[in-house]
Design a protein that fits this description.
heterodimer, A: mainly alpha, about 75% helix, B: about 280 residues, six-stranded mixed sheet, four-stranded antiparallel sheet, 10 helices
Chain lengths: ~280, ~280
């Protein structure tokens, strides 16, 4: 009976320890990463040298920005990057809305709702995104009067909405059933239980796979270059057709995509830390 | 517009009356004053029958303790009372309102019925204070200031006013269960249902929860408790119910229940549980 109070204070420091461990500087991973990237660059350089490629890196900066007599001007790649970000952001917001609706339909317990959700999911998931894009641009486009940009956004939103619905569903179902019961027993409606109890708790289950999905979306937005939306990849192709600098341009475009997705990943892992606090 | 409503009423009047008469016929007078009433309730999980023809009445202010071996349907019965599970036949009413799957009034009904779970089920993403105020604010529409005042008041009553700003996982099991009780009380409930509230607790924490429950009983709350704490039952129960295999086997006031129960099974159960 003497140390009844002992277990309670012990629990507090324990919860913070696993997070602190993950924060050390990952020397080995960074070294490995540098080695691989270095290898790829060296391979490309050696290959280019052997075929007598004429490197013209000095011509690249003008595609980011120019300083002319009129003053500062953004270059094509910068404009393309903005377009890609615009496309991805709008598509992601729409995809999340679609995903949430589909996920809720799927879990609604209504026979029709579940059937519609599963039908949508399987239809979209089992179709190449390129075919979906053609469908939106060449079939639905003329019917509903979509321009290239709208068709691209809708295609990306629908495709990723289907994938996101599964992430949301998994996150919602990961919340303990007792939470539903407790929410209902204090008189909450299903909507209130979702909004105040279940969704806030499911965020931490959804964040890691959602990060992957955002990165995937940014990368798959490159596909809309086939219908000539002026985003990053299309800009890259246009520059090459003017200059024939395929090596420099594709390396640069790849680096730009990588910078964007890395920033996203870092941002989300910060968010994850924020939500992962083990209350 | 008014004449429309009148016409609609006249057209469907017979339905209204037939429903009332139907309800009255199914519901004899002596049961209408009961705050909780269950008539001939059956409950199935697939092919397994969890409740057989269970009937039970709880009057306002009455304290009922339900005991019985595990798997006897005690929890199922109590969960049917606030619609966390739905019975398959028979009628359950709370304050005269039927509890069933089709009821649109279920959320409104549950506001008046507090439920305390074996596993506490506090909301881990909210502080203790937020756990207590979210119901009153979001469901009852109480102002934040008033809800917080009420919450601190009830935390005082369950003897943990100093934990208001912590999160559930920072509290011991006994403290969490007392917060869960306070969370229900903050909704100003008329009825409290307890589903084995002390079964998941370490032995040294059981009494702090039982003390709060005894104080609650003394304040005149209508209570239905599923529990094996016979000392508690002796102290607070007006009616003892013994269940086995989905049936109510014995219903008796505590003095008779503990000294001279009618059924042999009940006697055996009590001797097993009280022997140690």
């Amino acid at each position: 009976m003497t140390d009844l109070s002992a277990p309670a204070p012990q629990t507090a420091p324990q919860t913070t320890r696993p997070r602190a461990q993950g924060r050390g500087f990952p020397v080995v991973s960074v070294a490995l990463y540098a080695l691989i990237i270095g290898g790829i660059i060296w391979g490309a350089y050696a290959g280019a040298q052997s075929m007598g490629y004429n490197w013209q890196w000095y011509r690249m900066p003008q595609y980011f920005y120019r300083l002319t007599d009129d003053g500062f001007q953004w270059g094509e790649i910068a404009i393309g990057l903005v377009k890609t970000l615009q496309l991805s952001t709008i598509a992601f917001v729409l995809a999340t809305v679609i995903g949430l609706v589909v996920a809720l339909l799927r879990m609604s317990g209504l026979v029709v709702g579940t059937a519609v959700a599963i039908g949508f999911l399987e239809f979209i998931r089992n179709m190449p995104i390129l075919v979906l894009l053609y469908l939106f641009y060449y079939v639905l486009g003329p019917v509903f009067g979509f321009d290239r940009f709208t068709a691209s956004i809708l295609c990306l939103a629908v495709f990723h909405g289907a994938l996101i619905s599964e992430i949301l569903r998994a996150g919602i179902q990961a919340v303990a059933p007792g939470q539903w019961e407790a929410a209902k027993s204090i008189g909450m409606s299903t909507t209130q239980a979702y909004r105040y109890i279940v969704l806030p708790q499911s965020v931490r289950f959804m964040l890691p796979p959602m990060t992957g999905e955002v990165v995937h979306l940014v990368k798959s937005s490159a596909i809309v270059s086939v219908i000539a939306v002026a985003e990053l990849t299309t800009i890259g192709r246009n520059i090459i057709s003017d200059t024939y600098m395929s090596f420099e341009v594709w390396f640069t475009i790849a680096a730009v995509y990588m910078v964007v997705t890395l920033i996203l990943s870092i941002g989300v892992s910060w968010l994850e830390n924020k939500y992962a606090v083990d209350h | 517009m008014r004449s429309d409503i009148r016409a609609h009423y006249d057209k469907h009047k017979h339905l209204l009356y037939s429903q009332i008469e139907d309800g009255l016929a199914r519901f004899p007078m002596e049961h209408r004053n009961n705050i909780i009433s269950a008539r001939n309730v059956d409950k199935f999980y697939g092919a397994f029958q969890a409740l057989y023809d269970v009937s039970l009445n709880v009057a306002k202010g009455e304290r009922v303790v339900i005991c019985g071996p595990s798997g006897s349907g005690k929890s199922t019965l109590i969960r049917c009372m606030n619609g966390l599970e739905f019975h398959n036949s028979g009628i359950i009413t709370i304050n005269g309102v039927e509890v069933n799957e089709r009821s649109k009034q279920l959320p409104a009904l549950r506001q008046d019925i507090g439920m305390v779970f074996q596993q506490f089920n506090l909301f881990p993403h909210l502080t203790i204070l937020e756990n207590l105020t979210i119901g009153p604010i979001r469901v009852r529409g109480v102002s934040k200031v008033e809800a917080e005042e009420r919450a601190r008041n009830y935390l005082e009553r369950v003897h943990i006013p100093e934990q208001a700003d912590k999160y559930p996982n920072q509290l011991s099991g006994g403290q969490q269960q007392r917060v869960a009780i306070a969370r229900s009380l903050c909704m100003e409930t008329q009825i409290m249902l307890f589903d084995e509230p002390t079964s998941a607790l370490d032995p040294e924490m059981i009494n702090e929860v039982l003390d709060v429950m005894i104080e609650l009983a003394d304040s005149g709350m209508t209570m239905v408790c599923v529990t094996h704490e016979m000392g508690f039952a002796r102290k607070v129960a007006d009616t003892m119910i013994f269940m086995e295999a989905g049936r109510i086997v014995e219903t008796a006031p505590p003095n008779k229940f503990f000294t001279a129960p009618d059924s042999e099974r009940c006697r055996l159960f009590l001797s097993q549980i009280l022997a140690h």
